[in-house]
Amino acid sequence: MAKRIQFSTIGGPEVLQYVDFEPAEPGPQQVRVRNKAIGVNFIDTYFRSGLYPAPSMPSGLGTEGAGVVEAVGSEVTRFKVGDRVAYGSGPLGGYSEVHTLPEANLVLLPDAISFELAAAVMLKGLTVQYLFRQTYELKADEIVLFHAAAGGVGSLACQWARAIGAKLIGTVSSAEKAAHAKSLGAWETIDYSHENVAQRVLELTNGKKCPVVYDGVGKDTWETSLDCLEPRGLMVSFGNASGAVSGVNLGILAQKGSLYVTRPTLGTYANNAESLQGMADELFKMLASGKIEVGEVQQYDLKDAATAQTELSARRTTGSTILIP
Ligand SMILES: NC(=O)c1ccc[n+]([C@@H]2O[C@H](COP(=O)([O-])OP(=O)(O)OC[C@H]3O[C@@H](n4cnc5c(N)ncnc54)[C@H](OP(=O)(O)O)[C@@H]3O)[C@@H](O)[C@H]2O)c1
User: Fold this and answer.
1) Protein residue whose Cα sits closest to atom 42 of ligand 1
2) How close is the Cα of 186 to the center of ligand 1, in Å?
3) Ligand 1 neighbours (beta carbon < 6 A)
4) What angle is formed at CA 100 by the lines to CA 65 and CA 11, rounded to 5 degrees?
5) Measured distance CA(15)–CA(29) in Å, rounded
6) From the CB of residue 54, how many other CB atoms can be counted at a distance below 10 Å?
7) Which ligand 1 atom lies nearest to the CA of residue 240?
8) pTM of whole model > 0.70?
C-alpha cells in the first residue's frame, strides 16, 4: 500500500483526498517510481476543476515528479531499479508516494540535479524549452511579451530569455512580482492589474510591437495579447490561468494584422523518448551552467496538496511549488 492524492468528483481544492492505494505493477513498457519530490502545476487545477476531463474516476493528479526506480516492466531497456529519474508530462498520478508510468515519459536525472530541483523544473522548464526553442525560436535583441512572468513557467522563462539575449517584457500583478521577474532577467515588467498593457508595449517597442506573445493567462489577456503583436506576429496561447479562451472569431486575426495563433501542449512536443530526452538535456545544461537557477520554492507535504493548489490559484505564489511525499 502507498499514499496518494485522488479525487472522485470535480470541484475546488476540497475534493482532493489523501488516501491509501495499491500501486500498479508495471506493464511491459512501464516503470514504477518511488517519488522523492512532486511538482505542482496550474494544469493540475484544470483536471481537478473539470476544465480538462480526467480519463477515469476516481483519478490521481499531477504530471511532474522525480524519484528512484523501484520496479521495471519486462520490455524496459533504458532504466533499471535504483536509477534516479524525473518526468514532466504525465500520465496523471504524480501526487503520490509511488507512480507507475511509461518508460518513454521518463528521463535519467544527472547526479548534480536534486529531486527537489527536478520536481520544480521538469514540466515548467521543458515548456519553456519548446516555447523558446521550437514553437518560436527566440533570437537575441528581440522584444517579446510573456504573461505571468513571476509564476512557475514565467520565472524560468525570464532567465532563459536573458540567456538568449532576448528582451522579455513580463506581465505581473504586483510590485513584488515585478521585482521578482526583474531579478530573474525580465527586461521590463508591466503590472496588468492597473497598467494598459498594449499601450506600454507600444512605448517599449517604439511603436513596433512584438513578433511573438506567450500567453498562459488565457481568457483575460487574449485580446490584449493580439493588440501587442506586430503584423503577421505569432500568438502562443499556452494556458488558461484566468479561464479558457473560447468563441474566437477568426476575423479578429485579420483585423489585427494577419496574425498567426498556436495552442501548443508539452505532450505534443515531448511525444516520444527521443524528443523528451533532447529537450531535457538542453534544460539540464541550462541548469548546470547556472544560466537558469531555481531559487526558493514553495514546499508542502504531499497530504497538503489542496493548500498548495489554493495558494497557486489565488496568485499568492512566485516561481515553483513542490510536494514532498
Ligand atoms: N501548454 C503547455 O504545454 C503548458 C505547460 C505548462 C504550463 N502551462 C500553462 O502555463 C501557465 C502557467 O503555469 P504555472 O503552473 O507556471 O502557473 P503560475 O504561472 O505559477 O501561476 C499562474 C499565474 O497566472 C497569473 N494569473 C493571471 N490571472 C489569473 C487568474 N485569474 N487566476 C490565477 N492566476 C492568474 C498569476 O500571476 P500574476 O499574479 O502575476 O498575474 C498566477 O501566479 C498556466 O496557464 C498553465 O496552464 C502550459
Assistant:
1) 315
2) 17
3) 41-43, 123-124, 127, 148, 150-154, 172-173, 177, 216-217, 220, 238-242, 264-266, 312-313, 315, 317
4) 70
5) 32
6) 17
7) 45
8) yes
pLDDT by residue for the chain (325 residues), tens only, comes to 999 999 999 999 999 999 999 998 999 999 999 999 999 999 999 999 999 999 999 999 999 999 999 999 999 999 999 999 999 998 999 999 999 999 999 999 999 999 999 999 999 999 999 999 999 999 999 999 999 999 999 999 999 999 999 999 999 999 999 999 999 999 999 999 999 999 999 999 999 999 999 999 999 999 999 999 999 999 999 999 999 999 999 999 999 999 999 999 999 999 999 999 999 999 999 999 999 999 889 999 999 999 999 999 999 999 999 999 9
Residue nearest to atom 40 of ligand 1 (CA): 172
Measured distance CA(155)–CA(64) in Å, rounded:
17
The Cβ of residue 300 has, within 10 Å, a number of other Cβ atoms equal to 18
Residue whose C-alpha cell reads 513578433 in the numeric block: 211
What is the C-alpha to C-alpha distance for residues 87 and 107, in angstroms, rounded to an integer? 6
DSSP codes joined into one string, 113-138: S-HHHHHHHHHHHHHHHHIIIIIS--
Ligand 1 atom nearest to CA at 46: 47
**What is the atom index within ligand 1 of the atom nearest the CA of 241?**
45
Q: Rounded to whole angstroms, how far apart are CA atoms 253 and 306?
A: 39
DSSP string, 20-81: EE-PPPP-TTEEEEEEEEEEE-HHHHHHHHTSS--SSSSEE----EEEEEEEE-TT--S--T
Q: Are 64 and 19 in contact (CB under 8 A)?
A: no
